Amino acid sequence: MTRSNRTLNRVILALLGLTMLALAAGAGWLLLERAPQPELPRAVPDELLVPVAAAAAVAILLGILWIATRGRGVTGTAVSDDGLEIASSVVQDLLREALDRDADVVHVAVRASRLRSRTVLEARISVRRGADPVRVAESSRRALARVDVALGRRLPCVLHLTSGLRSRTSATTRVV
Fold first, then answer.
1. Number of neighbouring beta carbons within 10 Å of residue 99
2. CA 69 → CA 9, 64, 76, 138, 167, distances in Å?
3. 25 phi and psi, to 5 degrees?
4. Which of 102, 127, 148, 174 has the most CB atoms around its CB within 10 Å?
5. CA nearest 138: which of 127, 149, 130?
6. pTM of the model
7. Residue 152: which domain range?
8. Dihedral Cα 89, 93, 96, 100, nearest 10 deg
9. For residue 175, is it within any domain?
């Protein structure tokens, strides 16, 4: 999910929440007005209750529809062909193994997403502080090419080189 989708999603959910609060307040006000009050005449006509209830039902249905259609992008399957499915964790293990000899790579994580009926991989590679990003990107591309050979097909992949707490606190030597 891109940041613009996330922002749009949050704006729509906030508007839906405010709409639901307004509808609930209006319905509560109508119910209070309809409660027996012997000294006060009823100020709200019965014809107004039906449109408010219909608007609340439509808002609830739209909210359910919005929730039901979200989150379809991320999948656990990287390759699906003729009943054979290869999990994204297998691709992650293959990529980790291919990058195992690179001392600047601290961690590898792979996530598969469905985008317009195609599977796209997102590889996050945490690198050590001070690592040459161009060299790590090139070794990552070569590792991805080896993964493509192992899978028998070329999968589109977005490569993210990151650094953070893990890269700052990891040891400089690896035990194999």
1. 22
2. 11, 9, 18, 38, 37
3. -65, -40
4. 127
5. 127
6. 0.54
7. 74-169
8. 160
9. no
Same domain for 48 and 129, yes or no, is no
Q: Are residues 103 and 151 in the same domain?
A: yes
Burial 66-91 (b: 16+ CB within 10 A, else e): eeeeeeeeebeebbeeeeeebebebb
Is residue 87 located within the same domain as residue 64?
no
Tokens standing for residue 92: 């992650």
What token pair was written down for 89? 């964790």
pLDDT truncated to tens, each residue of the chain (176 aa)?
A: 555 677 788 888 888 888 888 888 888 888 777 777 666 555 656 677 778 778 888 888 888 887 777 666 777 788 877 888 888 888 899 999 989 888 889 999 998 887 777 888 889 999 988 888 899 999 999 999 998 898 888 888 888 988 866 555 555 444 33
Task: Give me the CATH number covering residue 130.
Answer: 3.30.70.1350
Query: What are the residue ranges of helices labelled H in the chain?
Result: 3-34, 49-68, 88-98, 133-151, 165-169
**CA separation for the pair 53, 48 (Å, rounded):** 9
In-domain check, residue 110: yes
- Which SS3 state, helix, strand or coil, does residue 75 take? strand
